[in-house]
Design brief:
Blueprint: H1 4-10, H2 24-40, E1 45-48, H3 55-63, E2 66-71, H4 74-82, E3 88-91, E4 106-108, H5 121-130, E5 137-143, E6 152-155, E7 162-167, E8 173-177, H6 183-190, E9 194-201, E10 205-212
Parallel strand pairs: 1-2, 1-4, 2-3, 4-5
Antiparallel strand pairs: 5-10, 6-7, 7-8, 9-10
Helix pairs in contact: 2-3
Length: about 210
């Protein structure tokens, strides 16, 4: 069973601790992601998927003309709203996006792609891209697999997805989908949907940029 939704709702108050690990390499790569977001979205109308508590929204909204950010967890959306950022936050399903209204010429989905079941990747990308103008820049970043970071990696016979066992501070444990990709796999996934695809793999995180077709 995938516990991702319940896990992230209950983890809302702890959500951003992962971005503050005392690791110079990780911090340097996170800074590079922030810098690219600032350049990529300067003056644009950005749709941000799976925004969580608004950690990345803060950087995006400072550069963008407008920012609409959504997540399916009411708990994380409430935290994001409390930050009083120059962005609009709403609740929506990343595989439907029924509540999304607006004219968007840029898109972002940071640290969400690894949680998408592999059989829903095309559903998400098609839905997301339909909300963006043709030729819109899209930026995504996520984790590179590093043994020992983020809980035990679990594989299951007959399942194409991999999972992580995550334990919250109250001791409750959850199995969540966490898929890791290499550069060739990302190129194979995104090439049918993207133009001008650029990929970068660091020690801790990968990031990609492309334009919608």
């Amino acid at each position: 069973m995938d516990d991702t939704k319940e896990y992230y709702s209950k983890r809302a108050e702890e959500y951003e601790k992962i971005y503050h690990r005392d690791d110079p390499v990780r911090q340097s790569e996170l800074d590079k992601i922030k810098n690219e977001l600032s350049v990529c979205f300067k003056g644009l109308n950005v749709l941000e998927a799976a925004c969580g508590t608004g950690y990345w929204t803060e950087t995006i909204s400072k550069a963008a003309k407008t920012t609409l950010s959504f997540d399916y967890s009411p708990e994380v959306i409430e935290i994001a709203k409390s930050k009083k950022l120059d962005a609009e936050f709403i609740i929506d399903d990343a595989y439907r996006m029924d509540n999304i209204r607006g004219n968007f010429n840029a898109g972002c989905a940071n640290f969400w792609f690894s949680h998408i079941p592999k059989n829903k990747i095309t559903v998400f990308l098609n839905c997301f891209h339909k909300k963006l103008n043709p030729g819109s820049p899209v930026f995504m970043a996520d984790n590179v697999y590093v043994e020992g970071i983020g809980g035990k990696l679990i594989t299951k016979p007959g399942y194409q997805d991999t999972y992580k066992l995550r334990v919250l501070s109250d001791g409750s444990a959850y199995e969540i989908i966490k898929n890791y990709y290499n550069e060739d796999e990302l190129k194979d996934i995104f090439s049918p949907h993207a133009e001008s695809l650029e990929t970068y793999f660091g020690n801790c995180f990968w990031r990609i940029k492309y334009k919608t077709k």
